Amino acid sequence: MSSVAEAIKLDEVAFRELEGSFRGILVRPDDPSYDEDRKVWNGSIDRSPALIARCTGVADVVAAVKFARASGLPVAVRGGGHSFPGLSVCDGGVLIDLGLMKGIRVDPEARTARVQPGVLWAELDHETQAFGLATTGGIVTHTGVAGLTLGGGIGWLHRKLGLTIDQLLGVDLITADGEFVRANESDNADLFWGVRGGGGNFGIVTEFEFRLHPVGPTVVAGPVFWPMEESPNVLRFYRDWIAECPDELMTLVMHRKAPPLPFVPAELHGKLIVGVACCYAGSVEDGEKVVRPLKEFGSPVVDVCVPKPYVAHQAMLDPSFPHHWWYYARSCDVAELTDEVIDITVEHSMQIQSPVTSFPIWQLGGAVSRVGDDDTAFNGRHAGHSFNILGVTQTADGFGEEREWAKRFWSALEPHHTSVYVNFLMEEGEDRIREAYGTEKYDRLKALKRKYDPDNFFRLNQNIPPD
Q1: In 10 A of CB 397, how many CB atoms?
Q2: C-alpha dihedral sign at 439, 440, 443, 448
Q3: Which residue, 122, 293, 394, 399, is most buried by CB atoms nearer than 10 A?
């Protein structure tokens, strides 16, 4: 049992009252499942809550919020648990775990989906693709729908459809007082603006309603790889190639050591490589034409950019970012891949030591940039690319070195920073959170926080304090 958890003594009378009204599972430090239940995706995070409240429905969420408020304990909220800095678990507080809330209802005629906050992207895609539909989701399928959406939501479909929040029709939310509210364009429109990018600052969303679109079920997708020494040429070609690409094409640039996967020749395993992964969310015939110049550039050592099921492509990167590896992130948006940005990227990519460090450079633009800046709390719609510089190890061994590498890389890019995606932040302080939103939006979000959570009850997040 953690000394932190031992030091927190729950009010037994209040706990018994909670226990009597709670349908889900209440886990305390002496329970057999405690150590497993407190784990999150990032293995470098080791925190010990005093209580884990595994909710099965809205009533459980309300009860857990009211209990935590009455107890005065800090609260962490966990959906998929994919927060880079581990903000979905806490020391000595109440972890409100939404992972058992898995309800999904797809309306194929209206092309909408109602989704509870414990749903993962693989689960949602499975249901929507049964009808040939999808919405913008993440690139790792065990990511939670809730956290990704509340921060904005980028993924393989964002250039064609817009961000995940651009598909959001409304939410049900439990406030810091344990009250139920609905927010959409007509009801509590100010709150609806804030949850579209403002994270978990205003309450716990217990249901999302998304707009769906025809996608797949087959797309042209996958990566093409070259030896790392070709990276300067590949990146300059890539920059020119995507300049006029259609919105249906979304790409990621990846630098890493080649993994020992079946489609990678054995002689490449452990060698530094550069790759461009594609997803063309249109017809297979058009997609094959669009990606042909990439596939024909230079002499690729691996080419698995082919027609495949959309759900298979969505899961492609899952083995590169599994649960309980150690992750450290530094991130920034840049306007474009200038020669200097490319040179910095190549220089630092050549320094990768860990066999599992794999960082994406996201292509933005397209439909993302055509939504009005003031329409949602999300900032950075006009950035060209988002760098998510990840230092990754399988255990603590070597983690310090990869973390310092990520910091050096990020610092070298600093003259080119334009903004930062809030979902890619570590615990970096208020100035970085303000940078993620821009001063005007940040002030507007603070005013919204004063209205819906004036005591900053929901503060274990990328926090926007009310004061």
Answers
A1: 10
A2: negative
A3: 399
Each residue of 167-182: pLDDT tens digit? 999 999 999 999 999 9
> C-alpha distances in angstroms, 83 versus 185, 195, 222, 462, 467?
28, 17, 26, 10, 25
Provide the β-strand partners of residue 329. Answer: 390
What CA–CA distance (Å, rounded) separates 231 from 109? 46
Q: What is the pLDDT of residues 127-153, one digit of tens each?
A: 999 999 999 999 999 999 999 999 999
Mean pLDDT across the chain, nearest whole number?
96
Full-model pTM: 0.95
Q: Where do we find the tokens 């921060």?
A: 151
